Amino acid sequence: MKRPSIGAILLGLIPFAAVCFSVSLWDRVYPMILGLPFNFFWLISWLLLTPLCMWGAYRLEESGAAKILSKKGRAD
Amino acid sequence: MTPRIIALAIIAGIVAAGSLIGFLARFRRTMDLEQWTVGGRGFGLVLVWLLMAGEIYTTFTFLGASGWAYSRGAPILFNLGQAPLIYVTSFYILPLIWEAGRRHKLQTQADFFQVRFGSTFLAAFVALIGVVSLIPYVQLQLTGLGLIVETASFGGISRAPAMIVAFGLVAAFVFVSGVRGVAWVSIVKDLLLLTAALVIGIAVPHIYFGGVGPMFTALAHARPAHLVMPGTTKNLGHAWYVSTVLLTSLTFYMWPHYFAASFTARSGRILRRNAVLMPLYSVTTALVLFVGLSAVLVLPNLSNGDLALLAMVRKTFPAWFLGIVGGAGALTAMVAAAIQLLTGATLYAKNLFRPILAPAMSDEKVATLAKIMVLVLTLGAVLLAIYSSLTLVSLLLMGFAGISQLFPGVVLGLFSKRVTTSGVFAGMTTGIAIALFLMLTGRDPYYGVNAGFVALCCNFLVTATISLLTRVKVGGFDEIPDVPASQPGAAY
Predict the structure, then answer these.
(1) Do A46 and B84 touch (CB under 8 A)?
(2) Alpha helices (H) along B153-267
(3) Are residues A50 and B281 in contact, defined by beta-carbon separation less than 8 angstroms?
(4) Are B433 and B379 part of one and the same domain?
(5) A residues 22-61 lying closer than 8 A (beta carbon) to B
(6) Of B349, B384, B459, B486, which is least surrounded by CB within 10 A?
């Protein structure tokens, strides 16, 4: 069973840092952006940015899986 | 035609169409236990997406989230914060759970514990936690459905008959089509729910304030405290936010029905792609919150916050649209309840009844018992919803506290070679005991921290300590021989 790589885990920690641990930095009403209070704007942005991070993690995992498969192929 | 009849006719039409699709989903397939519970492990990206989205956008998202935004304000941001993180967590653990499921023919969450830790009693304990925690969750869907029909009919149809009819249909299509039926009904429900959320979320602020921006400006002037944590509450501040978001986003997939949904995928890669895309779907949650926040200024004196969204729709739109929203909400409740009933019934038949009471039972008999249990659980949940709606929130919180205590066993079972059966058992028991104690004695949040999170931390500590003190029997799934493909359902 293949475990996730360090790079993929680091990419996954970015959304955790942005929407969870840093709450006291962004939980405010002003500046309002696009008509939204700052905290709403921040969290909604991360609904769109998280897929980018995880797409990066996906690419990393897939290329890792491809390498393992090609090594196995050569060994055979 | 009166508005009441128009709204009700549309709700009934949507519910009937959705149920029909549920029945047709079994078309040309024999329904053995494998097909009924995990769809033969053949679902592609679209069906898995629909199933998981269908399960996750429950009645709580629709009524509860807007209700919290209305009554509590900014603490509901936890719902927006957890949304992307649930899928980040799932990216790392679901493909591994799927892999174990394929190699060892797992159909339920308790099967996972059975195979990994080689203990029938641990598996039965996990199944018991699952069934007990699912019942209040089904009850929540029922009560939500009752509220919807009652509001949409302008009080003309009371909750009890609406709940009985809708859940009769749910039990019937789960009985006939299993998990495939649920996934297909999700298509109708998702289309309706997305449309409804988009229209309401944009139109309501626009009609009353001239847009989302002016709505927030007005709210920031009138009720500035409503828009930052702790909102209108005293104790739901930043510590509560961080602990709640961590608890729910890490342990979300411990709900047995979400856990088992990963077995339906055709490959682990599909689950990863699903995890990448799912946060985009959560944008609708934000729109639903806008409706609840608009209601703060437009309808400031509602007795029940959970009615905020429906009351706004009824006040703002024509009856036929109220019917569509009501129909979408009713189908949402039915889809969520369907998968919960299916999972609870399978857990009971396969992991509690057979191993403890009737070890010689055949797979066919287990499948029959599971189907009968769907009817029994439905009846139980309907009775509970009719006779006791008061303790609903506390029941649900207790359910979540119980379910989240399965997390250390699953994660350490996947990633650690050193975790032992006694460790997991001791950790789980400790976690549940602490969560129940804190919640029942009114200590949630505990010093500003979510009580379930406190319990989870203690659980991890006890699991680790006892594991290090006891001897390892099996060091991971890799050490367990695969079940041959020719032996369906023979997990043990």
Answers:
(1) yes
(2) 159-209, 212-222, 238-251, 256-261
(3) no
(4) no
(5) 23-24, 27-29, 32, 34-37, 39-40, 43-44, 46-48, 50-51, 53-55, 57-58, 61
(6) B486
Indicate whether B382 and B431 sit together in one domain.
no
pLDDT of residue B54: 60
My answer on whether B40 and B123 are in the same domain is yes
Calculate ∠ Cα B252-B272-B179, nearest 5°.
Answer: 65
- Classify residue B154 as exposed, middle or buried by CB count within 10 Å of its CB (0-12, 13-18, 19+): middle
Output the pLDDT for position B420: 92
Amino acid B297: pLDDT: 92
- Residue B304 maps to which CATH number? 1.20.1730.10
B322 plus B448 within the same structural domain: no
Q: Determine the longest span between alpha carbons in chain A, in angstroms.
A: 62
Residue B448 lies inside a defined structural domain of this protein:
yes
Banded model confidence at residue A56, pLDDT cuts 50, 70, 90? very high
Verify whether the Cβ–Cβ distance B96 to A58 is below 8 Å: no
Q: From CA B351, how far away is CA B346, in angstroms rounded?
A: 8
Question: Which residues of chain B have a CB within 8 Å of the CB of A36?
Answer: 212-213, 216
Segment 317-356 of chain B within 8 Å of chain A by CB: none
Give one DSSP letter per residue of B357-418, joined into a string.
Answer: H-TT--HHHHHHHHHHHHHHHHHHHHHHHHH--TTHHHHHHHHHHHHHTTHHHHHHHHH-SS
Together in a domain, B169 and B61 = yes
CB neighbourhood size of B475 (10 A): 13
Label residue A75 by pLDDT band (50, 70, 90): very low
CB contact under 8 A, A35 and B100: no
How confident is the model over B412-456, as pLDDT tens digits?
999 988 899 999 999 999 999 998 898 888 887 888 898 889 999
**Spans of chain B below 50 pLDDT:** 390-391, 486-492
- Nearest chain A residue to B246 by CA: give it: A20
Residues of chain A with Cβ-Cβ distance to B276 below 8 Å are 51, 54-55, 57-58
Are B28 and B65 contained in the same domain?
A: yes
pLDDT at B161: 84
Of B360, B388, B416, the residue at which a domain comes to its end is: B388
Give the mutation candidate from A13, A20, A55, A68 for the B interface (greatest B CB count, under 10 A): A20
Over its C-alpha atoms, chain B yields an Rg (Å, rounded) of 22
CB–CB of B85 and A19 under 8 A?
yes
**Residues B99, B187 within the same domain:** yes
Question: B324 and B152 in contact (C-beta within 8 Å)?
Answer: no
Q: What is the mean pLDDT of residues A31-55?
A: 93
Q: Could you tell me the residue range of the domain that residue B445 belongs to? A: 405-481
